[in-house]
Design a protein that fits this description.
Chain lengths: ~425, ~110
């Protein structure tokens, strides 16, 4: 027998909201869903009138619902935002084709301009080209690092004021849990922030921070929004997979646990003596980095210097950066020395930052991910790359070259559903 | 007891576990013949899940089922209404019902 809508509107309820337990009809649910996101936006002061905002669009459910809702709210409440869709094409043959088609559908449905930027545009290299040069064994290092920075580079090219990503409440609760499980206090402190980014960088905002995954999927279903689903993001046995499964099991028993975990993450205070790696700007590319020179620039240097015959695209940003860098007569070895110096100073605060779990899908590396990684392996990969491309005449090993510049890390999270970009991101 | 005809839909990536077919019309045999040990007169979602596992599910059942229910994160709709409003596993299927399974576990 039908349950009446809890608002007393007279219609039958269509769903039980996990967040509140209310039974609502479709129309009352749409209104509650959109209005809550509006409150999140206004209370968090995520946007300013006149801002250009890039919606990180992967074609997945989160970014599709985000784009739809932002368009709706921008019109309903007259935010005065100039919304656009930003998608990244890694250039992995066959992988993005379907999701990019979906993003194009979003563009038409929501009448928003769409910019698809390729790794070629952003870095001068496609993932396929990188794989061809370095083999499949090492490409996970590249896919994780490049993907992490791709949105920042893309947003800079578009000249937007901020990037909106589709991270939902379940994603954030999972990240809090993961950071606790890894003892990663620096990320724990930062991962619940609704706006991230430091001086001189383009901030990222999460309008769906308090929106449950179930509601996002129900909203998309009832609104008949078209989105793209990849294979299941659960990787049996991977650390993150267990955490995600645990969270879903808990949510089934007590749906408020998602909000409770986020609340815990937001209000937990961190002991003074925990050194938080400061976010700064890469001296070469000017994007967020925890190091003097970001990992992407180090990797690019290896690719570019080690393979001069391939060169890089004439108009590519990477080439410009390389020229600027060379003009300053710096050498990579000096950069590496700098990195090591920096890391010695920070060592105490960073010692447990680095567990990365197994790459859990074919999305990052065409299914050829080199399994479990951690910092040491990561660094040894960079070392071997630098060796391979004769970039390192010093015998100092590159240690602690990990970026702590974002909520996500390594390929593990890129491969998952970080909003794709959003995922992804 | 005659056969029961219902519609079973899969979405949100759940269809990837079912030959990528999103919409099916299925005919369930008499439940007391198919599952004599359950001693039921009519089909509920609980028995439907057993039937789906044995007849439709192509790969990795652990991504769809957990215990006697669906895996948490798979949403179930009964005639487009959240099954949580209809007793979940105990809902008794009616002729030409549409049962929809939508995964929230698949990335995008
Ligand atoms: Zn209502
Ligand atoms: Zn990978
Ligand atoms: Zn850089």
């Amino acid at each position: 027998m039908p349950v009446p809508c809890g608002t007393g509107c007279g219609k039958n309820a269509a769903l039980k909201r996990p967040k509140t337990g209310d039974a609502l009809c479709k129309e009352c649910f749409f209104w509650a869903f959109e209005t809550e996101i509006h409150f999140t936006i206004t209370k968090g002061e995520l946007f300013k009138r006149g801002d250009s905002v890039a919606v990180a669009a992967s074609g997945g459910k989160d970014s599709t619902v985000l784009a739809h809702t932002l368009k709706t709210l921008n019109e309903r409440y007259d935010y005065g935002l100039n919304l656009m869709l930003l998608s990244i094409d890694e250039g992995i043959t066959g992988y993005r084709d379907d999701s990019l088609e979906t993003v194009k559908q979003n563009r038409d449905d929501y009448e928003m301009p769409l910019k698809i930027l390729s790794y070629k545009d952003l870095y001068g290299w496609t993932m396929d080209e990188i794989v061809a040069q370095i083999g499949r064994k090492n490409n996970c290092t590249f896919c994780g690092v490049f993907r992490r920075q791709a949105l920042d580079r893309g947003a800079a090219l578009l000249g937007v004021k901020c990037i909106a990503t589709g991270h939902n409440a379940d994603d954030i609760a999972e990240t809090v849990l993961m950071n606790v499980l890894r003892g990663d206090i620096a990320r724990l402190k930062r991962c619940t922030a609704i706006t991230t980014g430091s001086e001189g960088t383009i901030p990222r905002v999460k309008p769906l921070k308090y929106t449950y995954e179930k509601e996002i999927v129900m909203y998309a279903h009832y609104k008949k929004l078209v989105y793209f689903s990849t294979e299941c993001v659960f990787a049996p046995n991977a650390y993150r997979g267990h955490a995600r499964a645990l969270l879903k099991d808990l949510e089934k028993i007590r749906p408020t646990c998602i909000m409770d975990i986020i609340y815990s993450g937001e209000t937990m205070s961190i002991k003074e003596e925990v050194t938080l790696p400061s976010q700064r700007i890469c001296t070469r590319c000017k994007f967020v980095s925890s190091q003097e020179v970001c990992k992407a620039c180090v990797l690019l240097e290896g690719l570019n210097k080690g393979l001069p015959k391939l060169g890089i695209g004439k108009s590519s940003k990477a080439k410009k950066m390389l020229e600027e860098y060379n003009a300053r007569q710096n050498t990579l070895e000096q950069v590496i020395d700098d990195l090591n110096d920096t890391n010695i100073k920070k060592k105490s605060g960073k010692k447990r930052n680095g567990l990365t779990d197994k790459c859990n899908s074919k999305t990052c590396c065409s299914g050829n991910c080199n399994s479990t990684q951690n910092n040491m392996e990561d660094n040894s990969k960079i070392n071997s790359l630098l060796d391979e491309y004769s970039l390192k005449e010093t015998d100092k090993p590159v240690q602690q070259l990990n970026d702590v510049s974002d909520d996500e890390e390594g390929c593990s999270s890129s491969c998952g559903r970080l909003g794709g970009l959003g995922v992804g991101f | 007891m005659p056969a029961l005809k219902i519609n079973v839909h899969f979405g949100g990536g759940a269809e990837l576990l079912f030959d990528k077919i999103k919409k099916r019309e299925v005919e369930l045999p008499a439940v007391d013949k198919y599952l004599p040990e359950c001693e039921k007169k009519g089909w509920t979602i609980r028995e439907l899940l057993v039937w789906i596992k044995e007849n439709l599910l192509r790969e990795r059942p652990e991504l769809f089922l957990q215990g006697e229910s669906v895996r948490p994160g798979i949403l179930v709709l009964i005639n487009d209404t959240d099954w949580e409003l209809y007793g979940e596993l105990d809902y008794e299927l009616q002729p030409s019902d549409t049962i929809t399974f939508i995964s929230t576990l698949h990335g995008g």
